[in-house]
Design a protein that fits this description.
about 220 residues, mainly alpha, 3-stranded antiparallel sheet, 11 helices, 3 strands
């Protein structure tokens, strides 16, 4: 569920993809003190400075460094953020497969997912002093095409659902991926089970053995 909201936030960069009500709700939420733990100013800067031809990787890196330097969100803060977003974005969320008729269930699900997703986003490769998300995106961009705001949404959706992405294994099968899967299997085992076979077949069984690789720091644990 948290990932569906992440896709929604990523989509904020191109107005044609979101309703005006949802855009307004997201902007209002970004100025709320409760959202500070998500580094909304970094996310807004990422969106504003993105173009149809420029890679979003530098902006993502800046946003994540700001995000990971903040204290993690409390359940109360997450509840406030989600409660503020749902009324204006119900139609947009429905298009992502999220039914908003039971906000309490959505809030509970996001509160359960958030700690694991936050840890994955803040993984750091100490051998290169690079955040893992940045490292993986850079590898993918080098092996495929420029990572733009619009194609990152499609990429994240495919990764989460276990669909084929067409990414060469050399770009994806690195210690960061193994670390991310290990954390996912610990915190969200049902989600991990949906991608286990694709990661194992692409990278090898050792990538899903549940062991943290050396050189990867969990900066948010």
């Amino acid at each position: 569920m948290f990932l569906n909201f992440a896709v929604l936030l990523a989509g904020a960069g191109f107005a044609q993809s979101l309703s005006s009500q949802c855009q307004s709700a997201l902007l209002n939420t970004a100025t709320s003190p409760s959202a500070a733990c998500l580094n909304p100013s970094g996310l807004i800067e990422l969106v504003i400075t993105s173009s149809d031809s420029s890679s979003i990787i530098p902006g993502v890196n800046t946003w994540l460094y700001g995000l990971c330097s903040q204290a993690t969100c409390s359940n109360s803060a997450l509840q406030t953020v989600v409660t503020d977003i749902i009324p204006g974005c119900s139609t947009d969320l429905s298009s992502l497969g999220v039914t908003t008729t039971n906000p309490t269930a959505i809030i509970a699900s996001i509160q359960a997912d958030y700690p694991t997703v936050q840890r994955i986003m803040c993984l750091d490769d100490t051998s290169t002093s690079t955040l893992c998300v940045t490292e993986v995106l850079t590898n993918i961009q080098f092996a495929t095409t420029t990572i733009l705001l619009n194609n990152i949404v499609a990429l994240v959706t495919k990764l989460v659902s276990g669909q084929s992405t067409g990414i060469p294994s050399s770009a994806f099968c690195i210690n960061c991926t193994k670390a991310a899967y290990t954390i996912l299997s610990q915190g969200l085992p049902e989600t991990a089970s949906t991608v286990r076979s694709s990661i194992s077949s692409e990278c090898g069984a050792s990538y899903t053995d549940g062991q943290m690789p050396s050189g990867i720091q969990d900066t948010n644990s």
